[in-house]
Amino acid sequence: xxxxxxxxxxxxxxxxxxxxxxxxxxxxxxxxxxxxxxxxxxxxxxxxxxxxxxxxxxxxxxxxxxxxxxxxxxx
Length: 75
Description:
This protein is mostly helical. Helix content is about 70%, strand content about 0%.
């Protein structure tokens, strides 16, 4: 069974959050019309969600639900 390295999980979480940061900043800017406030909201949101996503990914690697197991041997 293949598993993901910590580095792969970190890179996946980071690239996902870059997109999330952009969306959050755009929404916050649309509401506040202040780029400094929007960037602060985006940065805080990204920091919290980056850690949460990484923890979520690593937790799911430990859960067998929905996985199939490869046979120990193949004829």
